[in-house]
UniProtKB/TrEMBL annotation:
The chain crosses the membrane at residues 147-170. Coiled coil: none annotated. The keyword Amino-acid biosynthesis does not apply. This is Peptidase S26B, signal peptidase. GO terms for molecular function: serine-type endopeptidase activity; signal peptidase activity. Its EC number is 3.4.21.89. The keyword NADP does not apply. It is an enzyme of class 3 (hydrolase). It comes from Haloferax mediterranei (strain ATCC 33500 / DSM 1411 / JCM 8866 / NBRC 14739 / NCIMB 2177 / R-4) (Halobacterium mediterranei).
Amino acid sequence: MKVPSKQTLFNTLCVVVLLALVLPFAVTAVPQLVGADQSYTVLTGSMQPAISSGDVIIVRDVPASTIETGDVITYELDSGRSDVQRQTHRVVEVVEREDGRYFRTKGDANEDPDQRLVSADTVVGRVMMTIPYAGHVTLFANTTTGIVVLILVPTVLLIGSEVWMLISAVRKSRGGER
């Protein structure tokens, strides 16, 4: 059996590392890849330890009738502000009223349930998956430093890899001429 060369092992390792780095961000940017509808970066620790600040949550739009106690949902807050605020908490009780379905929610890290009931029509969806720490990179990427680092570093690595391959090819061809 032939043993793979160092170059083959290095190339394989680079592909694996690249996939491990790119896939979470691809899912964050295009949640439809995993059958979801939205992705959000979590900014607070109210859902710790299940979901931490800096994690990215992938949310799927689901009918309110399918949401049950124990589900983690993302919903819009009526904050009175022009920009829409969203919150992600666990459903601790489903409340049926004459005027519709409501949910009592609670952050896992909070002692008490939220004061207001969440109306079914404000629910964005159910949290489908969490990508730990990915939000830190997303937030960093929205800064000038982040843009420079996230473009400059991969560019330098790519150029370095190409130079390495050229040097290796030149050395190999010179060794064969003797």
